[in-house]
Each structure stands twice: as structure tokens, then as C-alpha cells.
Specification:
Distance between the termini: 39 Å
Number of helices: 17
Radius of gyration: 23 Å
Structural class: mainly alpha
Number of domains: 2
Mean pLDDT: 89
Shape: globular
Largest sheet: none
Oligomer: single chain
Order of helices and strands: HHHHHHHHHHHHHHHHH
Number of strands: 0
Helix content: over 70%
Length: 462
């Protein structure tokens, strides 16, 4: 008996590895890589615009903050395409999958018009919010060109949904990497006027964003048209034909996801404001800690989306045990990764914080000390942050979005933001208190969403 038990255990693990762990990793890793590559695009923009000067950087940041709110809402609604398409594929309903993807394209086209109208008036909006006229004018000129990129960028997200549901996420990764490289080259040429091109500064950065978004979209369109399996779905065929019921289904399922994303972004923006009340040094250290957390966060996003797709496929096949395996496998992989990151934050915080500092700067030592203390709390924060994003993705795989939205609003603001303020100021814990409040909010949401997934059959999600 003792001889056979290890063999049986190894056999069970082998089955689990081939059937659940490996497919989740194969799908999730390229999605996470694409998220990191997208971060590289944004980082290159900030870095090169920052070389122009503080005024130009301030203008770009203000315009981009408005852009990202509009982009995130649109992207949130488009997230509904993933579970709808995955379930349709699991059911073997090619027509339903095609309907979901096409109406994702339609949503982008319809949504871009009012979004463009808002961005066209960026200068007026910023002046109304009390920004300096010269900064607002620069931001307005930048926004009126950059806003064009919203359409190809969101169309790319809709097409990515189709490609990842078809388990071709490597194409998304390589297209995004190509876009990141192109963005850096075009920005360098157009912002600073190299290789005989005129020096366009902020206008050049905006043109670079439009070119990058368009080329990335064209790369993915070309891939879909060339791939034999993807081409069979004809997602671009008769694209002019409306399908209002399916479009309404996407919006109805997707708007709570969009609100959830905006509430989460607002939480981190709000805690940055709170940190700014304490001091500039603390805010700088907070920025470093959140940047590190944002980088590691890309992996559970990818794993969560992979699990969402696999849950949708299993649900479409009517495979209830498969839904559970897909969900708990994704959760386990995500927690293993974030646990390793938490250990790194705890063991080598100085090394990580030091990457962002020039110790020739007189403030660097103070920023370093505070940043290291923040990472100690961020280690705990890592686990909860990974759990809540994966848990939310598991529920989206079951087309469950409205209750998780309410959980997120209560957790992020009722617990997280309120806790950050109380711990940071009335209780006098300062920056550490703000990070503890963040961790508490994320912990609250993570427990609720995973509890809801565990009860999925009892509460009628399957």
C-alpha cells in the first residue's frame, strides 16, 4: 500500500497538470505578458514626455487621466464579450460566438462618438476644474489627437476577447509587444524631431498613440484573417448588420464590470490624495510601492481571464465539475504567484524600492525608508489583491456581474477608503494606516467573491 500511494498521488497530479494547470498557464501567461507590454507603452509615453518638461508632462497626465477613465469604462463593458463568447464556444454555437464578437465591435463604434465629444472639450473641462490655462491648452491639443486612438484601441480589446477565447493568446502577446516597440520608436522620432522629422512634442506623442493603436489592431485583424480556425467564424462578415438584442446583452452584462473597474481605480486615486495630505515624501514612496504592486498585478489579471474563459467553456458544455476545477485551479495558481511576490516584498524590499531612486537626490534616503515600510504592508496586500481580481473573473465567467459590483463598491470604499482615512488620520498611523486600509478593503472583497464562487450551485449561478 505504501508503495502504490505515491504512485497514485503522482498520477492524480499528472492528470490535474495536463487537464487544468497547464491549460490555465498556457492561456494566462500570454494575457499577463500582453498586460505588461501595454504598461510599457504607457511608461514610454510618460518617460519621453517628461523629457520635454514639467508643464508638458502635467498636461499629458491630465489629458491621459480623462482618456483612461473613458477607455476603462469601454473596456469594462467589452469584458462581457469574453464569458458570452466562451459559453457559446463551449456549447458549440459558432453563430452565438460570432454575434457576441460583432456586437462588441458595434459597441465600440457607438461608444466612441460620445467619448470623443468629451475629449474634444478637454481644455474647457480642465479650466472648469481650476487647472492653469496654459496647461489646459496643451492638454486640449494633445487630447484632440490622442482621442482618435480610443476607437482602434477598444476594437483591439474586442478582437482580443475573441482570440483569447479561441485560446490563441500568444498572438495577442506578440501584437502588443510589437505595438510597444513601435510606440517607443515613433515617440522618439516625432516628439523630438529625429531622422529629419519635425519636432512635434506633445502632438508627436499623440500621433504616436494613434499609430500604435491602429497598427496593433491591424496586426490582430491580419492574424484572424490568416488563421484557418479563426477565419471559419467570419467575425468580420456582414459586420454592418445590427443585432440589438445581443448588443443589449453585452451592455447589460458589461456595465457593472465597467463600474467595478472605475471604483477600483478611484480607490487608488483617492488613497494617493490621502497620502498627499501627509507629505510629498510619503506620496513619492507610495507611488513606488503602487508601481511595484501594479507590475505584479498583471499576472493575476492574466490568470483570472484564463480561468474566466475556461469556466465559460465548461459552463457551455454543461460540465459543472469542470467549472469548479477551472476556477479553483486559476485561484491556486494566482495565489501561488502572489504569495511568492509577497515573500519578495517582505525579504528584499530595499532592493525593489532602490530600483526607482537616484540616491544622489537629497530626498532619496527618506523616500527609501518610507517605501520599504510600505512594502511590508504591500506584501499582505499582494495576496488579497490577487484573490479579489481572480475571484471577480471567476464570477464573470458565470455571467455574474451585478452582485460582485455591489461587493466591490462596499469593499473598496465602505471598507477600503474609509479604513484608510480612519487608520491614517484619526488613529494616527499615517501612510502605513492608508496601506492597511487598502489591504482591508481588498481582503473584504476577496473573501466575498470567493465565497460566492464556492456557493455558485447553491445560489443558482450554474
Amino acid at each position: 500500500m505504501n508503495d502504490t500511494s505515491p504512485t497514485r498521488a503522482a498520477g492524480r497530479f499528472s492528470v490535474l497538470w495536463r487537464g487544468d494547470i497547464l491549460p490555465t498557464l498556457a492561456l494566462g501567461a500570454p494575457i499577463a505578458g500582453a498586460q505588461v507590454a501595454q504598461m510599457a507603452v504607457n511608461t514610454a509615453d510618460v518617460l519621453m514626455i517628461g523629457w520635454l518638461g514639467a508643464t508638458e508632462l502635467a498636461a499629458a497626465v491630465l489629458a491621459f487621466n480623462l482618456y483612461i477613465v473613458l477607455w476603462l469604462f469601454g473596456m469594462g463593458v467589452l469584458q462581457a464579450v469574453i464569458p458570452l463568447a466562451a459559453r457559446a464556444r463551449g456549447e458549440g454555437q459558432a453563430r452565438e460566438l460570432r454575434r457576441a464578437v460583432r456586437m462588441g465591435f458595434w459597441f465600440v463604434a457607438l461608444y466612441s462618438v460620445p467619448a470623443w465629444a468629451v475629449m474634444w472639450h478637454t481644455e474647457e473641462l480642465l479650466i472648469a476644474l481650476g487647472q492653469k490655462p496654459e496647461v489646459a491648452a496643451l492638454a486640449g491639443g494633445y487630447a484632440r489627437i490622442m482621442m482618435i486612438s480610443l476607437l482602434p484601441s477598444l476594437l483591439t480589446m474586442a478582437l482580443r476577447s475573441f482570440i483569447t477565447v479561441m485560446e490563441r493568446a500568444q498572438a495577442v502577446l506578440w501584437a502588443t509587444i510589437a505595438g510597444a516597440v513601435l510606440n517607443a520608436i515613433v515617440n522618439y522620432v516625432l516628439i523630438f524631431g529625429h531622422f529629419g522629422f519635425p519636432r512635434l512634442e506633445l502632438v508627436g506623442a499623440a500621433i504616436g498613440s494613434v499609430i500604435t493603436a491602429t497598427v496593433t489592431l491591424l496586426l490582430l485583424v491580419g492574424y484572424v484573417l490568416r488563421d484557418r480556425q479563426l477565419r471559419r467564424y467570419h467575425v468580420f462578415g456582414r459586420i454592418w448588420r445590427s443585432d440589438w438584442p445581443k448588443l443589449a446583452e453585452i451592455v447589460w452584462l458589461g456595465w457593472p464590470i465597467a463600474v467595478t473597474l472605475l471604483v477600483e481605480v478611484a480607490l487608488f486615486s483617492g488613497t494617493s490624495v490621502l497620502m498627499g495630505w501627509i507629505g510629498t515624501i510619503e506620496l513619492a514612496a507610495h507611488g513606488i510601492a503602487t508601481q511595484l504592486a501594479s507590475i505584479t498585478f498583471m499576472v493575476p489579471i492574466g490568470i483570472g481571464q484564463a480561468a474566466m474563459i475556461r469556466i465559460g467553456l465548461a459552463a457551455g458544455r454543461g460540465d459543472r465539475p469542470g467549472v469548479g476545477r477551472a476556477g479553483w485551479t486559476g485561484f491556486g495558481i494566482g495565489m501561488a504567484f502572489m504569495g511568492a511576490c509577497a515573500i519578495a516584498f517582505w525579504v528584499i524590499p530595499g532592493t525593489l524600492v532602490g530600483l526607482f531612486l537616484d540616491f544622489g537626490n537629497p530626498d532619496a534616503a527618506n523616500v527609501f525608508a518610507i517605501g520599504v515600510s510600505f512594502l511590508a504592508v504591500a506584501a499582505l496586500f499582494q495576496v488579497f489583491d490577487g484573490a479579489q481580481v481572480i475571484g471577480g473573473s471567476l464570477l464573470r465567467g458565470l455571467s455574474d456581474t451585478k452582485v460582485p459590483m455591489i461587493m466591490a463598491i462596499v469593499g473598496y470604499w465602505g471598507v477600503g477608503m474609509t479604513g484608510a482615512y480612519i487608520l491614517g488620520f484619526p488613529l494616527g498611523l499615517g501612510g502605513i494606516g492608508i496601506w492597511l486600509g487598502l489591504a482591508a478593503g481588498l481582503a473584504f472583497v476577496s473573501v466575498l467573491v470567493m465565497w460566492r464562487f464556492a456557493l455558485r450551485e447553491r445560489i443558482g449561478l450554474l
